[in-house]
Amino acid sequence: MTESTRQDVVNVGDKLHIITRRNYAEDLHRHFAGTIEAVSEGHMRLHGYTFVIDQDAIDFRRGPELHNKIYPISSAQLIINVLPSHTIMDDLEYRRVDGRLTLVDGARLRLDVNESDGIS
Fold it and tell me: E strands within 1-120?
């Protein structure tokens, strides 16, 4: 395959939502949403927001600061969702929609992010 016909799995500018799988029930729920700034052999650097669960509200809260994070492109520990290019990253938040945990941007994005059907 030549360079001009190669299709990359992810590219600079792609918007991703990443869930880190928990190994144990008591592990912290960690999610990240960001835009890819660089891609190298097997890794990608993203700029975006970290989300963690608020145990009191049983809901996810976005951290106030933007972060740069490096993730592997392929890992069994990660669930990676490619977000539409029109996603408004600064407006992302979690809401309950029909009892399901949903990532929304206040415009068009509605991504169901329940880790199992048993979560309500």
Answer: 15-20, 30-40, 43-54, 59-62, 67-72, 78-83, 93-97, 100-104, 110-112
Q: Is residue 71 within 8 Å of residue 40, measured between CB atoms?
A: no
Buried b (16+ CB within 10 A) or exposed e, 33-66: bbbbeebeeeebbbebbbbebeeeeeebebeeee
Tell me the residue range of the domain where 50 lies: 15-112
Is residue 9 in some structural domain?
Answer: no
pLDDT in tens, 10-24: 999 999 999 998 888
Q: Is residue 119 part of a domain?
A: no
Q: How many domains does the chain have?
A: 1
Q: Is residue 8 part of a domain?
A: no
- Spans in the chain with pLDDT lower than 70: 1-7, 54-59, 115-120
User: Residue 106 domain-assigned?
Assistant: yes
Give the Cα separation of 105 and 80 in Å (integer). Answer: 18
pLDDT of residue 118: 40
Token couple for 66: 């933007």
